[in-house]
Give the backbone structure.
Amino acid sequence: MRIQGKDLMRKHFFGYLLYLNAILAGAQTPDLVRLEYTIIPENNAGIQTSRYRAVLNAPMKLSEKSNYLVIGAEYNRYDFNINRPLPFEYKTLERLHIIDLNLGYTFKWNQDWRFIAAITPRLASNFELGIENNDFRLNTSAAFMKERKDIDKPYRFVIGLSYNSATGLPFPLPLLNFNKRFHPNWSYSVGVPRWDFKYHSTDNKHVTQAALFLDGYFVNIQNDILLPNDNIGTSISLSALVSALGYQYKFTNEISIYGLVGYSLVQEGLIRDGSRNRAFILNNEGNIYLRTGFKIGIF
């Protein structure tokens, strides 16, 4: 199904905003180590999606004033099982890769605030022909964080800006998160790209949560795809707004395993043309969303 006209673009403006925010989500993990598996089962669109994710970040203390350099990497692999006929050759879309290299720096700005900056070169492609110029993206972000742990109701507030070259916008987009433990057993977090409400057991080993978050990707397609009506597909993207219930078991305050069961309230899997316009809808059906993983976090 091919999309044409400004009216339809306006009609799908909300989905486009999800796409813009979702591609920022991967650059915001505070984890030292994360191993994760996500599956979106086959739905009426005839597509099943699996994602394998690995994250490794290594902080290095630079001075006694708590200045740190963080070097790391993240790898995401998407596997697709397409069980419906499509009016074009899609074999080159069945496996996609995203590789990030992370370089961050953080220091105490003053007594209350910490400054955090990061630059993340990215390769996002199906890599059919090795590496091409269009596979390369660049993400940058800068933020201030205020955190109080030594009070009855501890909180953490992060505010900043993030620029992602995949958006096609010549300006940065906001980063925002506020997390508060307002009761010994309850906490909440609001912001972009995630909102959640959590119950913590008295021994702090068991955490259950209700969450609403954005997920997605933007990946270059090597060997451009000839679509119906002679349109050319040059990239593929997914944007999803997911509502989920989750459980986390903490071995220590930093080391845990977790699982999520949810549903994508809004979902758009698209092939885009050279101007990043919608050229073909692959999947716009809501679907079950399952995720499990292991992590060593900072907080």
Notes: The first strand starts at residue 31 and ends at 40.
